Amino acid sequence: SFGRQNWHDAVGAEHKAVRDGVAVFDQTSFAKLLVQGRDACAELNRMCAANIDVPIGKTVYTGMLNKRGGFESDVTVIRLNEDRFFIITGSAQAVRDANWISRSFAPNAHVYMTDVTSAWSFLAIMGPKSRNVLGALTKTDLTNDGFPFGTCKSIDLGYATVMANRMSYVGELGWELIVPTEFTAGVYDDLMQIGADHGIRDAGYYALDGLRIEKGFRAWSRELTPDITPLQAGLGFAVDFDKPGGFVGKDALLAAKADPDHLDRRIIQLVLKDAKAQIWGGEAVLCNGVEVGEVRSAAYGHTLGAAVALCDVKAGSKIDQAFIDSHSFVI
Question: pLDDT tens digit string along 34-52?
Fold first, then answer.
Protein backbone atom coordinates (compact mmCIF):
# COMPACT_ATOMS: atom_id res chain seq x y z
CA SER A 1 0.00 0.00 0.00
CA PHE A 2 0.98 3.65 0.00
CA GLY A 3 0.59 3.80 3.77
CA ARG A 4 2.93 2.72 6.53
CA GLN A 5 4.60 -0.62 5.99
CA ASN A 6 5.05 -3.46 8.45
CA TRP A 7 8.65 -2.38 9.10
CA HIS A 8 7.66 1.12 10.29
CA ASP A 9 8.14 0.49 14.01
CA ALA A 10 11.37 -1.47 13.50
CA VAL A 11 12.89 1.45 11.60
CA GLY A 12 11.67 3.77 14.36
CA ALA A 13 13.64 1.76 16.92
CA GLU A 14 16.72 2.01 14.70
CA HIS A 15 16.25 5.79 14.44
CA LYS A 16 16.10 6.05 18.22
CA ALA A 17 19.23 3.94 18.66
CA VAL A 18 21.21 6.24 16.35
CA ARG A 19 19.91 9.48 17.86
CA ASP A 20 20.13 8.42 21.52
CA GLY A 21 22.50 5.43 21.69
CA VAL A 22 24.55 3.54 19.12
CA ALA A 23 23.92 1.45 16.02
CA VAL A 24 25.91 -0.21 13.25
CA PHE A 25 25.12 0.19 9.55
CA ASP A 26 26.54 -2.27 7.02
CA GLN A 27 27.26 0.11 4.13
CA THR A 28 29.55 -2.31 2.31
CA SER A 29 27.55 -1.81 -0.88
CA PHE A 30 28.99 1.72 -1.11
CA ALA A 31 31.58 1.80 -3.88
CA LYS A 32 35.28 2.48 -3.23
CA LEU A 33 37.71 3.79 -5.84
CA LEU A 34 41.47 4.15 -5.42
CA VAL A 35 43.11 6.95 -7.43
CA GLN A 36 46.89 7.07 -7.38
CA GLY A 37 49.84 8.38 -9.33
CA ARG A 38 52.15 11.38 -9.55
CA ASP A 39 49.36 13.58 -10.97
CA ALA A 40 46.52 12.14 -8.88
CA CYS A 41 46.10 15.24 -6.72
CA ALA A 42 46.09 17.71 -9.60
CA GLU A 43 43.72 15.61 -11.71
CA LEU A 44 41.23 14.97 -8.91
CA ASN A 45 41.34 18.58 -7.77
CA ARG A 46 40.34 19.68 -11.26
CA MET A 47 37.33 17.32 -11.15
CA CYS A 48 36.19 18.17 -7.62
CA ALA A 49 34.46 21.39 -6.61
CA ALA A 50 36.04 21.35 -3.15
CA ASN A 51 39.78 21.50 -2.58
CA ILE A 52 41.10 17.96 -2.08
CA ASP A 53 44.74 19.10 -1.85
CA VAL A 54 44.61 18.72 1.91
CA PRO A 55 46.95 17.27 4.55
CA ILE A 56 47.36 13.49 4.59
CA GLY A 57 44.58 11.90 6.65
CA LYS A 58 41.99 14.58 5.92
CA THR A 59 38.58 13.74 4.44
CA VAL A 60 36.71 16.02 2.04
CA TYR A 61 33.07 15.89 0.96
CA THR A 62 32.75 17.23 -2.57
CA GLY A 63 30.70 17.28 -5.72
CA MET A 64 32.00 16.40 -9.16
CA LEU A 65 30.40 18.81 -11.59
CA ASN A 66 29.82 19.08 -15.32
CA LYS A 67 30.61 22.18 -17.36
CA ARG A 68 27.10 23.53 -16.61
CA GLY A 69 27.86 23.41 -12.89
CA GLY A 70 25.47 20.49 -12.26
CA PHE A 71 26.27 17.39 -10.24
CA GLU A 72 27.71 14.33 -11.95
CA SER A 73 28.26 12.78 -8.52
CA ASP A 74 28.98 13.62 -4.90
CA VAL A 75 31.73 11.71 -3.16
CA THR A 76 33.92 11.52 -0.09
CA VAL A 77 37.65 11.81 -0.82
CA ILE A 78 40.23 10.60 1.73
CA ARG A 79 43.86 11.57 1.20
CA LEU A 80 45.94 8.51 2.11
CA ASN A 81 49.30 10.04 1.16
CA GLU A 82 50.80 12.50 -1.32
CA ASP A 83 49.75 10.56 -4.40
CA ARG A 84 46.98 8.19 -3.23
CA PHE A 85 43.31 9.04 -2.71
CA PHE A 86 40.47 6.79 -1.53
CA ILE A 87 37.05 7.74 -2.91
CA ILE A 88 33.77 6.56 -1.37
CA THR A 89 30.66 6.89 -3.52
CA GLY A 90 27.14 5.51 -3.63
CA SER A 91 26.12 1.91 -4.18
CA ALA A 92 24.32 2.60 -7.45
CA GLN A 93 26.93 4.72 -9.20
CA ALA A 94 30.20 2.76 -9.05
CA VAL A 95 30.41 2.11 -12.78
CA ARG A 96 29.14 5.58 -13.64
CA ASP A 97 31.60 7.38 -11.36
CA ALA A 98 34.53 5.22 -12.42
CA ASN A 99 33.73 6.00 -16.04
CA TRP A 100 33.32 9.72 -15.40
CA ILE A 101 36.61 9.95 -13.51
CA SER A 102 38.66 7.89 -15.96
CA ARG A 103 37.30 9.84 -18.95
CA SER A 104 38.15 13.11 -17.21
CA PHE A 105 41.84 12.31 -16.74
CA ALA A 106 44.16 14.31 -18.99
CA PRO A 107 45.58 11.98 -21.69
CA ASN A 108 49.19 12.32 -20.57
CA ALA A 109 48.58 12.44 -16.83
CA HIS A 110 50.37 9.94 -14.59
CA VAL A 111 47.29 8.73 -12.72
CA TYR A 112 45.45 5.42 -12.33
CA MET A 113 42.06 4.48 -10.94
CA THR A 114 41.14 1.07 -9.50
CA ASP A 115 37.75 -0.14 -8.29
CA VAL A 116 38.57 -1.69 -4.89
CA THR A 117 34.96 -2.10 -3.70
CA SER A 118 35.24 -5.85 -3.12
CA ALA A 119 38.45 -5.52 -1.09
CA TRP A 120 36.88 -3.45 1.67
CA SER A 121 33.75 -3.68 3.78
CA PHE A 122 32.19 -0.57 5.29
CA LEU A 123 30.73 -0.65 8.81
CA ALA A 124 29.45 2.66 10.15
CA ILE A 125 29.11 2.92 13.93
CA MET A 126 26.89 5.89 14.69
CA GLY A 127 25.31 7.55 17.70
CA PRO A 128 26.28 9.48 20.85
CA LYS A 129 27.59 6.27 22.46
CA SER A 130 29.73 5.25 19.46
CA ARG A 131 32.87 6.64 21.10
CA ASN A 132 32.30 4.45 24.17
CA VAL A 133 32.03 1.31 22.06
CA LEU A 134 34.91 2.05 19.71
CA GLY A 135 37.09 3.30 22.55
CA ALA A 136 36.91 -0.09 24.26
CA LEU A 137 38.35 -1.78 21.17
CA THR A 138 41.21 0.51 20.17
CA LYS A 139 44.18 2.29 21.73
CA THR A 140 43.64 5.29 19.43
CA ASP A 141 42.67 8.61 20.98
CA LEU A 142 39.05 9.20 19.90
CA THR A 143 38.54 12.59 21.57
CA ASN A 144 37.62 15.64 19.52
CA ASP A 145 41.18 16.93 19.85
CA GLY A 146 42.77 13.59 19.10
CA PHE A 147 40.44 12.59 16.28
CA PRO A 148 38.67 15.65 14.80
CA PHE A 149 35.72 15.49 12.43
CA GLY A 150 36.83 15.06 8.81
CA THR A 151 39.84 12.94 9.75
CA CYS A 152 40.74 9.40 8.68
CA LYS A 153 43.25 7.28 10.58
CA SER A 154 44.49 3.71 10.47
CA ILE A 155 43.57 2.25 13.88
CA ASP A 156 43.76 -1.06 15.69
CA LEU A 157 40.36 -2.63 16.33
CA GLY A 158 40.38 -6.00 18.02
CA TYR A 159 42.45 -8.29 15.79
CA ALA A 160 42.16 -5.99 12.78
CA THR A 161 43.70 -2.81 11.48
CA VAL A 162 41.05 -0.64 9.82
CA MET A 163 40.66 2.83 8.35
CA ALA A 164 38.44 4.86 10.66
CA ASN A 165 36.88 7.87 8.96
CA ARG A 166 35.14 10.36 11.25
CA MET A 167 32.23 11.34 9.04
CA SER A 168 28.48 10.86 9.31
CA TYR A 169 25.56 10.53 6.92
CA VAL A 170 23.07 10.59 9.79
CA GLY A 171 24.17 13.74 11.61
CA GLU A 172 25.42 12.12 14.82
CA LEU A 173 28.81 11.32 16.33
CA GLY A 174 30.30 8.32 14.56
CA TRP A 175 32.99 6.68 12.50
CA GLU A 176 32.88 4.95 9.14
CA LEU A 177 35.06 1.86 9.50
CA ILE A 178 36.68 0.76 6.24
CA VAL A 179 37.65 -2.83 6.95
CA PRO A 180 39.64 -5.37 4.91
CA THR A 181 37.00 -7.85 3.77
CA GLU A 182 38.57 -10.86 5.47
CA PHE A 183 38.43 -9.13 8.89
CA THR A 184 34.83 -7.94 8.63
CA ALA A 185 33.13 -10.71 10.60
CA GLY A 186 35.58 -10.36 13.49
CA VAL A 187 35.25 -6.56 13.62
CA TYR A 188 31.44 -6.78 13.52
CA ASP A 189 31.37 -9.40 16.30
CA ASP A 190 33.67 -7.27 18.48
CA LEU A 191 31.49 -4.19 17.99
CA MET A 192 28.32 -6.07 18.88
CA GLN A 193 29.88 -7.78 21.91
CA ILE A 194 31.29 -4.59 23.44
CA GLY A 195 28.24 -2.59 22.35
CA ALA A 196 25.78 -4.91 24.09
CA ASP A 197 26.18 -2.98 27.35
CA HIS A 198 25.32 0.22 25.48
CA GLY A 199 22.22 -1.14 23.72
CA ILE A 200 23.85 -1.39 20.31
CA ARG A 201 21.70 -2.63 17.46
CA ASP A 202 21.82 -3.13 13.71
CA ALA A 203 20.33 -0.41 11.52
CA GLY A 204 19.41 -0.63 7.85
CA TYR A 205 19.10 1.54 4.78
CA TYR A 206 15.50 2.61 5.44
CA ALA A 207 16.73 4.07 8.73
CA LEU A 208 19.79 5.57 7.02
CA ASP A 209 17.57 7.30 4.47
CA GLY A 210 15.19 8.63 7.10
CA LEU A 211 17.99 9.89 9.32
CA ARG A 212 19.79 11.72 6.53
CA ILE A 213 16.55 13.31 5.23
CA GLU A 214 15.76 14.57 8.73
CA LYS A 215 19.15 16.29 8.73
CA GLY A 216 18.67 17.61 5.20
CA PHE A 217 21.61 15.66 3.77
CA ARG A 218 21.36 15.45 -0.01
CA ALA A 219 21.79 12.29 -2.12
CA TRP A 220 23.00 11.74 -5.66
CA SER A 221 20.23 11.02 -8.22
CA ARG A 222 17.62 12.27 -5.77
CA GLU A 223 18.36 15.90 -4.90
CA LEU A 224 21.67 16.06 -6.75
CA THR A 225 21.39 15.72 -10.52
CA PRO A 226 23.28 17.00 -13.57
CA ASP A 227 20.81 19.91 -13.74
CA ILE A 228 21.11 21.04 -10.10
CA THR A 229 24.05 23.21 -8.99
CA PRO A 230 25.61 23.28 -5.51
CA LEU A 231 24.12 26.75 -5.03
CA GLN A 232 20.61 25.46 -5.70
CA ALA A 233 21.22 22.39 -3.56
CA GLY A 234 22.41 24.42 -0.56
CA LEU A 235 25.91 22.95 -0.83
CA GLY A 236 27.84 26.09 -1.65
CA PHE A 237 30.03 25.43 1.40
CA ALA A 238 31.52 22.44 -0.47
CA VAL A 239 32.79 24.60 -3.34
CA ASP A 240 36.21 26.30 -3.28
CA PHE A 241 36.15 29.09 -5.83
CA ASP A 242 39.63 30.26 -4.85
CA LYS A 243 41.66 27.06 -5.10
CA PRO A 244 44.56 27.16 -7.59
CA GLY A 245 43.71 25.84 -11.05
CA GLY A 246 39.96 26.06 -10.66
CA PHE A 247 37.65 23.12 -11.37
CA VAL A 248 35.22 21.82 -13.95
CA GLY A 249 32.04 23.90 -13.78
CA LYS A 250 33.61 26.92 -12.07
CA ASP A 251 32.76 29.38 -14.85
CA ALA A 252 29.15 28.24 -14.88
CA LEU A 253 28.86 28.58 -11.10
CA LEU A 254 30.38 32.05 -11.12
CA ALA A 255 27.84 33.07 -13.75
CA ALA A 256 25.08 31.50 -11.65
CA LYS A 257 26.17 33.43 -8.55
CA ALA A 258 25.80 36.65 -10.52
CA ASP A 259 22.40 35.67 -11.93
CA PRO A 260 19.55 36.86 -9.67
CA ASP A 261 17.21 34.26 -11.21
CA HIS A 262 19.46 31.26 -10.52
CA LEU A 263 18.03 30.66 -7.05
CA ASP A 264 14.43 30.56 -8.22
CA ARG A 265 15.05 26.80 -8.13
CA ARG A 266 16.10 25.27 -4.83
CA ILE A 267 16.18 22.07 -2.82
CA ILE A 268 14.08 22.69 0.30
CA GLN A 269 13.05 20.57 3.26
CA LEU A 270 9.40 20.25 4.27
CA VAL A 271 7.89 18.46 7.28
CA LEU A 272 4.23 17.43 7.20
CA LYS A 273 1.88 18.75 9.85
CA ASP A 274 -0.20 15.56 9.58
CA ALA A 275 1.75 13.07 11.69
CA LYS A 276 -0.13 10.09 10.21
CA ALA A 277 0.54 10.76 6.53
CA GLN A 278 3.20 8.81 4.64
CA ILE A 279 5.06 10.05 1.56
CA TRP A 280 7.57 8.22 -0.62
CA GLY A 281 8.89 10.65 -3.24
CA GLY A 282 7.49 11.86 -6.54
CA GLU A 283 4.52 13.67 -4.99
CA ALA A 284 3.70 17.17 -6.28
CA VAL A 285 4.60 20.22 -4.20
CA LEU A 286 2.16 23.15 -4.25
CA CYS A 287 3.05 26.68 -3.21
CA ASN A 288 0.02 28.86 -2.46
CA GLY A 289 -2.02 26.37 -4.48
CA VAL A 290 0.24 26.36 -7.54
CA GLU A 291 2.37 23.34 -8.46
CA VAL A 292 6.05 24.32 -8.19
CA GLY A 293 7.93 21.03 -8.06
CA GLU A 294 8.09 17.56 -6.58
CA VAL A 295 9.30 15.54 -3.63
CA ARG A 296 12.69 14.00 -4.44
CA SER A 297 13.32 12.08 -1.20
CA ALA A 298 10.93 11.28 1.62
CA ALA A 299 10.73 9.16 4.74
CA TYR A 300 9.02 9.14 8.09
CA GLY A 301 11.14 11.23 10.44
CA HIS A 302 10.84 9.32 13.69
CA THR A 303 12.83 11.99 15.55
CA LEU A 304 10.60 14.75 14.18
CA GLY A 305 7.37 12.76 14.59
CA ALA A 306 6.15 13.23 11.02
CA ALA A 307 7.05 12.53 7.42
CA VAL A 308 9.84 14.72 6.09
CA ALA A 309 10.71 15.49 2.48
CA LEU A 310 13.48 17.04 0.41
CA CYS A 311 11.86 18.79 -2.52
CA ASP A 312 13.00 20.24 -5.83
CA VAL A 313 10.96 23.41 -6.33
CA LYS A 314 11.03 26.25 -8.84
CA ALA A 315 9.24 29.52 -8.21
CA GLY A 316 9.06 32.78 -10.12
CA SER A 317 11.37 34.56 -7.70
CA LYS A 318 14.36 33.89 -5.46
CA ILE A 319 13.69 31.12 -2.95
CA ASP A 320 15.20 32.01 0.41
CA GLN A 321 14.10 31.79 4.03
CA ALA A 322 11.91 34.86 3.68
CA PHE A 323 10.16 33.35 0.66
CA ILE A 324 9.50 30.09 2.51
CA ASP A 325 8.22 31.89 5.61
CA SER A 326 5.80 34.00 3.59
CA HIS A 327 4.29 31.17 1.52
CA SER A 328 2.28 28.05 2.32
CA PHE A 329 3.29 24.64 0.98
CA VAL A 330 1.25 21.50 0.42
CA ILE A 331 2.45 18.06 -0.68
Answer: 999 999 999 999 999 999 9
